[in-house]
Amino acid sequence: MPYPEIMIQGMRQELAQLGIKETKNPEEVKEAVEKTDGTLMVVVNSVCGCAAGGVRPGIAMALQHAEAKPDESITVFAGADIDATDVARDYFEGYAPSSPSIGILKSGKLVQMFERKDLEGRPPQVIAQALVEAFNSHCKKTEAANN
Q: Which of 17, 24, 90, 145 has the most CB atoms lying inside 10 A of its own CB?
């Protein structure tokens, strides 16, 4: 049984306000992965305290302060967008399902994964720094692409 929408709406809005697209069904997830030319950040949102205390604020900080950012970002909500979450997790090959979690995909392939164990109990600043480092590693545009 999915979480009632009234219970999670504010948690959804925290990421939507950052420009992260909500994907609520498998087709939307697949379309985002297949149509993103470059890097895609996939956030598996969650009701847990670590999502509220560190992950969502850390994502906000990283997106505000990073020089390099993913070309696109989407989110699914574990426990609510169940089918969409399953499809998103299919792209996290080699990793067990966890929420919250953040995957960075490049051309549809996972290049960096942050599982719950990498996020839980960490302050937003630490999560933001890890994301900025991931963005710098995987999302920087090459000089040739800028010319």
A: 24
The three-state secondary structure class of 57 is helix
If you average pLDDT over residues 51-68, what whole number do you get?
A: 93
**Cα 69 off chain centre by:** 12
Contact, 127 vs 63, CB < 8 A? Answer: no
Q: Which CATH number fits domain 5-121: 1.20.120.30, 3.40.30.10, 2.60.40.10, 3.30.470.30?
A: 3.40.30.10
Say whether pLDDT at 147 is over 70. no
* 85-96 average pLDDT score: 97
pLDDT of 115 reads 97
Give the Cα separation of 73 and 49 in Å (integer).
22
Q: Which residues contact 144 (CB under 8 A, 6 or more apart)?
A: none
Query: Measured between alpha carbons, how far is 82 from 117 in angstroms, rounded to an integer?
Result: 21
> Which active-site residues does the annotation give?
48, 50
pLDDT for residue 12 is more than 90: yes
Total-model pTM: 0.93
- What CA–CA distance (Å, rounded) separates 108 from 36? 8
